[in-house]
Amino acid sequence: MQHTVPSLKDGSLFKSEGFIDGQWVSASSGQTFEVTDPASGKVIGTMPEMSAKETEDAITAAAAALPAWRKKTGRERGRILRAWYQLMVDNAEDLAKLITWENGKPIADARGEVAYAAGFFEWFAEEAPRVGGDTISATVPGNRVFTTKEPVGVAGLITPWNFPAAMITRKIGPALAAGCTVVVKSPGETPFTAAALAELGIRAGVPKGVVNIVTALKNTPEVGSTLTSSPAVRKISFTGSTGVGKLLMKQSSQTLKKLSFELGGNAPFIVFDDADLDLAVAGAITSKFRSSGQTCVCANRLYIQSGIYDKFATAFAKKVEAFSLGSGFADVSAHVEDAVKKGGEVLVGGKAREDLGPNFYAPTVIRDMKSTMALSSEETFGPVAGLFKFDTEAEVVKLANAAEVGLAGYFFSKDVQRVYRVAEALEVGMVGVNTGLISDPASPFGGVKESGFGREGSRLGIDEYMVTKMVTLGGMGGELQT
């Protein structure tokens, strides 16, 4: 049963089909899957349950579109991306409503995501004409060496549900700027935002076959396997769990694809005694509870130095107590129960709010956390903040680095020497100092260890979709002719 689209200014942005070779298409099997509103549990609508066949069709379309797209100048590709950016800005409120509807995040968060997502199209519209090579001084007399950058080819992009717009534009933007064509596997939980973006791409002038969107829920593994095994796909970019990333990496090894993976995080958030307390509390709120704690870079372990621990706990709990509720998951309850069982004290929340629906969990703060608790080693991905006490820099850095993953880390301190020491010692790909929000299209986003490799955004982001070609010219030396 389909419900009314929530008062979109432009109802044509609501699409219930996949997008292949410039056409809106259903699954050849006729199968569909339901998408539900996480707040109410009601069905929003259906999308095609696509399979290997549609994925192969999309790959074929992308491969056919590649020669003409890569021949365009960077400036020409940039103009299309710039038009796409402007269309996102012009339709920002509709996009935000779609995100909130199928993802469940607060509308203010959704509006922020749309601005952030559009920013990747703007950024890479500007990077597209600025891709260049190098001239190299050869060691062989008479030789001249230079390099060029070329698009890697067809790229398979697999994105998660927690940022329905931004995770897609962060990959499509640099891929198209580089001259690649793409096949996007949209998230099964949030496919309508992706479809709306594709509709705006048509209006921006993206040629047919350059962007293709495959939709699936239960067939997601089949779609992923088809992308990773296809010789025509030369690049896979994936954002999601470390476990799935390892599987995709194994599958991709058969065709030796270029890969970039942004995988799980377990971000430490450190507050030293000399920190600005109000700034640290505000930063913790931003980092921990953004999108109900469901981002890869959310603070998961909050380490507070002993001298400021009690003050921080009181101030932080007071802020959280004033929150409205956001969606939660089963492992949120498990982590809270485990912490309480092992001596943690719940200051705020600590229980599901089933009276509001099956997906609501009270924002929770737990003090007196220990390293033996599940939350210290597992990513919660929900609105639970556990406060650990520490005494020294060396102690907290050791605790922070104990995780197998290393995506983001945060700390608060006014000591500039400490800032350098701790930033350099943390085993993460990104560090926030005196801030809980580090995402920016201009900044390279990515991790180390089991959080993956490659960088998204920034001037480095476009390199993930390019290969370097070296050209050596022989016989270029000698005397001038007379």
From TrEMBL:
One term under GO cellular component: cytoplasm
Keyword Oxidoreductase in annotation: yes
Catalytic activity: succinate semialdehyde + NAD(+) + H2O = succinate + NADH + 2 H(+); succinate semialdehyde + NADP(+) + H2O = succinate + NADPH + 2 H(+)
UniProt GO MF annotations: succinate-semialdehyde dehydrogenase (NAD+) activity
Domain Aldehyde dehydrogenase: 24-471
InterPro entries tied to this protein: Ald_DH/histidinol_DH, Ald_DH_C, Ald_DH_CS_CYS, Ald_DH_CS_GLU, Ald_DH_N, Aldehyde_DH_dom, Aldehyde_DH_Superfamily
Enzyme Commission number(s): 1.2.1.16, 1.2.1.24
Enzyme class at the top of the EC tree: oxidoreductase
One example of a Gene Ontology biological process annotation: gamma-aminobutyric acid catabolic process
Keywords, in A-Z order: Oxidoreductase
Active site: E262
Any matching Pfam family: Aldedh
Family: Belongs to the aldehyde dehydrogenase family.
PANTHER family reported in the protein's UniProt record: SUCCINATE-SEMIALDEHYDE DEHYDROGENASE, MITOCHONDRIAL
UniProt name for this protein: Succinate-semialdehyde dehydrogenase, mitochondrial
Organism: Cryoendolithus antarcticus
Lineage of origin: Eukaryota, Fungi, Dikarya, Ascomycota, Pezizomycotina
